[in-house]
Amino acid sequence: MNLPKRVTLKEVGPRDGLQNEKKFVTTEQKVEWINQLSESGLSHIEVSSFVHPKWIPALSDAEQVFQQIHRHSGVTYSALIPNIKGAERALQVGVDEFAVFMSASETHNRKNINKSIEDTYSVLKEVANEGKSARKNVRGYVSTVFGCPYDGHVSLEEVKKICDKLFSIGVYEISLGDTIGVANPQQVEEVIKEVKKEFGVDRFALHFHDTRGMALANTLVGLQLGVKIFDGSIGGLGGCPYAKGASGNVASEDLLFMLHEMGIETGVDAKSFLKAATFIEDVLQKTLPSHQLKIAEGMS
Residue 163 in contact with residue 199, Cβ under 8 Å? Predict the structure, then answer.
């Protein structure tokens, strides 16, 4: 197989993984956890979200977390930024990178952001301009690329149109999200070939959910087509709200195991990473869906 020699894992667990958790993880626990992640060799950690605290209470301490974590040189500490107010809050605590977000399907975008796709662009442009004026990189998330819980099939032409618009407002990289875990390898191949032809493959990351156990199979297709950036959530944190009881994000340590076994470098120390996964599992007091975590616990 023609595979990249090195891949970047972008860890989204502290934000995407915790945002729907019912049990509140204290600021001190978050800081300790993120400090452990920083020591694992990761180069990118999405720390929190600057969405209004009433919408995501689990991340209401975003400022405090950013102020207290021990930052490692060579690690980018990013946050999700929904609007200009969020951007201003983020800049006050030295967020390294902004992440903006929208959906590829109209109904999901309206339910998630309370705006039409067309009306979302001006908000994201304002955030991107604020970030760029402060010399921050701006990353984009596009949700429901592979299927929507409301609209079903999502047009690939619509996905490309959204990507084009995001690149035009200054986003340097787009993470294509399989929000409800419905993607299959054939579909992933089709999507990547199309966006690769239009924009080049190096400007894209893949963000798979493992709701139906397809995340690693889909990852392999991405690797074969030259994708070198993947999002993951430690422990598999982050349940899918549209598939009750199902797992959400692909577990970063399962992704790491596959990559390392295939001889692909990540720069992440698997043993150190598992320590951080065990830590957050203990804090949440529930079993996380990660296979590697289960194996490690079974051997201890």
Answer: yes
Identify the pLDDT of residue 241: 58
How many domains does the chain fold into?
A: 1
The residue behind tokens 């549209």 is 242
Residue 86 inside a domain? The answer is yes
* C-beta atoms surrounding 27 within 10 Å: 16
139 bridge partner residues: 99, 173
> Where does residue 258 rank: exposed (0-12), middle (13-18), buried (19+ CB within 10 A)?
middle
Q: Would you give the end-to-end CA distance of the chain in angstroms?
A: 35
CB 260 within 8 A of CB 242: no
* Residue among 79, 191, 237, 240 flagged as catalytic: 240
Provide the token pair at 12: 């989204």
- The predicted pLDDT at position 197 comes to 97
1 within some domain: no
Residue 240 known to be catalytic = yes
Residue ranges in the chain whose pLDDT is less than 50: none
